[in-house]
C-alpha cells in the first residue's frame, strides 16, 4: 500500500500531525478491540450441535455460549442434558434448547432440522456442528459387520444426511450457513484396532471437501475440526497408563494433552464471521501432532 506524501510528512513532523491526518478516517467502531469482538460474536446466531453433553462437544458448546450464541443441544435420548444446559446459560448463551436424537436413527435425521426451526427464537438456524461420534476397538479380523455398520452410521451417514438437510434448507431459502464436521487424527492416519472409526473419520473430511466444492459459492462454508489426543472419557486408557501416556506425550510437540476447553476458540472462529473465507479446510487442535 502506498501512502500519500502528506501522510509521510506528518509522520516526520510529529505524532500530532499523524492523528490530524487520520482523524477523518477514525471511528470508535473500527478500533481493533471492537472489530475483533464483532468479528467473533455469535449474538443473534442459532447453532445446532450434536454430541455436546460431555467431552470435546461440551468444550465446543462452552465456547459458543461465551460468544453469545443461541444453542440447540442435540443429545441422545438416554442422556440428561440439564447439567450442561445450566452451565451454558451461566456462561452467557442467549438460550439453550435440548433436542433428543439418536444419531443411529437415520430415518429421523430430517426431524432435527424441522424441530430446530421450531425451537429457534429467530425461526432459522445458522450453524450445524456434527460432533457426535462413537468408536469400536478391536483388530480388523475380529471387527464384526454390526460394529462396522454402527460406527459408519453414526460417524458418517448421519452427519452427511444432517449436512444435506441443513444445506438444502439454506439453499432453498437463499441463506448463508456454516457446517463444521468433527474429524480425527485418524482422518489422516491409519491407527490401530479401529478400522471402522478410521474409515468414518477419513470419509467425513472428504465429505467436508466435497460439500465445500458444491456449496461454497452459494454462501455455505464447510470445514472440519480435527481433535488430537484430548483428556476425555475416550482416552482414559491412555491417561491411566503411565507408560502409554509418556509415549503419546513424546509425540506431541506442545508436550501436553489437550482439554475440552481448547476447542472454545477454534469452534467460535469456524462458526463466526471471522472464518468467512475459510472453506473445505480443517483446523487441527492437536498440540502440533500432525506436524510431525
CATH architectural group: 3-Layer(aba) Sandwich
Radius of gyration from the alpha-carbon trace, in angstroms: 22 Å
Which stretches are poorly predicted, pLDDT < 50 over at least 5 residues? 1-30
Assigned CATH class: Alpha Beta
Main sheet: strand order: 3-2-1-4-5-6-7
Q: If you consult CATH, what is the topology? A: Rossmann fold
Which percent range fits the helix content?
A: 40-55%
Order of helices and strands: HHHEHEHEHEHEHEHHHE
| Strand segment count | 7
Q: Which word captures the global form? A: globular
Percentage of β-strand residues: 5-15%
CATH homology superfamily name: NAD(P)-binding Rossmann-like Domain
Protein name: KduD protein
Organism: Cyberlindnera jadinii (strain ATCC 18201 / CBS 1600 / BCRC 20928 / JCM 3617 / NBRC 0987 / NRRL Y-1542) (Torula yeast)
GO molecular function, one term: oxidoreductase activity, acting on the CH-OH group of donors, NAD or NADP as acceptor
Family: Belongs to the short-chain dehydrogenases/reductases (SDR) family.
Descriptive overview:
- The protein has 292 residues and is an alpha/beta fold.
- The chain has a single domain (34-287), classed as Rossmann fold (3-Layer(aba) Sandwich), CATH 3.40.50.
- 44% of the residues lie in helices and 13% in strands.
- The chain is built from 11 helices and 7 strands.
- It has helices spanning 5-13, 15-22, 32-40, 55-66, 82-91, 109-119, 145-172, 195-215, 236-239, 242-249, 264-271; strands at 46-50, 70-75, 95-100, 127-130, 177-182, 220-227, 282-285.
- Strands 3-2-1-4-5-6-7 form a 7-stranded parallel beta sheet, sandwiched between helices.
- Helix 8 (195-215) links the parallel strand 5 (177-182) and strand 6.
- The protein is globular and about 50 Å long.
- Residues 1-30 have low confidence and may be disordered.
- Belongs to the short-chain dehydrogenases/reductases (SDR) family.
- It comes from Cyberlindnera jadinii (strain ATCC 18201 / CBS 1600 / BCRC 20928 / JCM 3617 / NBRC 0987 / NRRL Y-1542).
- Keywords: NADP, Oxidoreductase.
- Pfam families: adh_short.
- One of its GO terms (molecular function) is oxidoreductase activity, acting on the CH-OH group of donors, NAD or NADP as acceptor.
Amino acid at each position: 500500500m502506498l501512502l500519500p506524501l502528506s501522510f509521510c510528512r506528518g509522520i516526520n513532523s510529529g505524532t500530532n500531525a499523524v492523528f490530524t491526518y487520520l482523524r477523518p478516517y477514525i471511528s470508535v467502531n473500527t478500533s481493533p478491540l471492537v472489530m475483533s469482538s464483532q468479528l467473533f460474536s455469535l449474538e443473534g446466531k442459532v447453532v445446532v450441535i450434536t454430541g455436546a453433553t460431555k467431552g470435546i462437544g461440551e468444550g465446543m458448546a462452552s465456547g459458543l455460549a461465551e460468544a453469545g450464541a443461541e444453542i440447540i443441544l442435540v443429545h441422545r435420548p438416554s442422556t440428561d442434558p440439564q447439567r450442561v444446559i445450566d452451565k451454558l446459560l451461566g456462561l452467557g448463551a442467549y438460550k439453550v434448547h435440548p433436542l433428543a436424537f439418536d444419531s443411529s436413527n437415520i430415518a429421523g435425521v430430517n426431524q432435527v432440522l424441522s424441530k430446530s426451526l421450531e425451537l429457534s427464537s429467530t425461526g432459522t438456524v445458522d450453524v450445524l456442528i456434527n460432533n457426535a461420534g462413537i468408536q469400536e476397538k478391536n483388530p480388523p479380523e475380529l471387527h464384526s459387520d454390526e460394529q462396522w455398520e454402527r460406527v459408519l452410521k453414526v460417524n458418517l451417514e448421519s452427519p452427511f444426511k444432517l449436512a444435506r438437510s441443513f444445506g438444502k434448507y439454506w439453499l432453498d431459502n437463499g441463506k448463508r450457513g456454516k457446517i463444521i464436521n468433527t474429524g480425527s487424527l485418524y482422518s489422516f492416519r491409519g491407527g490401530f484396532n479401529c478400522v471402522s472409526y478410521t474409515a468414518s473419520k477419513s470419509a467425513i473430511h472428504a465429505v467436508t471437501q466435497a460439500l465445500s466444492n458444491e456449496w461454497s459459492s452459494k454462501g455455505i462454508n464447510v470445514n472440519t475440526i480435527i481433535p488430537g489426543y484430548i483428556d476425555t472419557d475416550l482416552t482414559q486408557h491412555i491417561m491411566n497408563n503411565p507408560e502409554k501416556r509418556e509415549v503419546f506425550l513424546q509425540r506431541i510437540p506442545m508436550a501436553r494433552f489437550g482439554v475440552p476447553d481448547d476447542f472454545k476458540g477454534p469452534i467460535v472462529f469456524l462458526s463466526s464471521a471471522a472464518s468467512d473465507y475459510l472453506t473445505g479446510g480443517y483446523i487441527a487442535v492437536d498440540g502440533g501432532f500432525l506436524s510431525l
